[in-house]
Model the fold of this input.
Amino acid sequence: MQNSTQAPAPLDLDVLGDRLLLAAIGISAVTAVFLGLQFVDSGMAFGTTLGLLVIAALGYAGADNSPARRFVLSFVLVCFVALHIQLARGLVELHFGVFVVLAFLLVYRDWRVIVFGAALFAVHHVVFDRLQAAGMGLYCLTEPDFGRIVAHAAYVVIQAGVEVVLAVFMSRAAREGKELKELIASVNRE
Done:
């Protein structure tokens, strides 16, 4: 039986990360529906939102606190930002979502998730810009402009690079803190 004077166990940062991304996915879903209604593309908004929510639910339920869960939730969140940009017909303000999502991914302290998210954004921007230029009805900006896409990519690379360095240091500090805690607990037991 646990002593009632003991402090509660701290929340695992991976669990916190999952919860943060799930909350962001929920907010993104509501935003997508709102944008769909605003920009008269509610069918795409509802259908894609439902599909992304199913992917998030399956990924969360099927990947029990594993790195796979991080990648699935990150993928869904990136897709929501792409959907927001599409629904707003490339409105540049919706691109701020790229930087917000990259900042959220830092909660995992896993450089691979940050690189994954940045790569997904880069692929989305290049592919949608080129398809927009070809007249396919997809949007990255209000009008295709590969030069601006490259400029956006430069900012993403800079932010992702800084976050990778931060994630490596944060992960190392967390491991060292855990080792120290285990060492102290071991000494206290003896």
Remarks:
- The chain is about 75% helix and 0% strand.
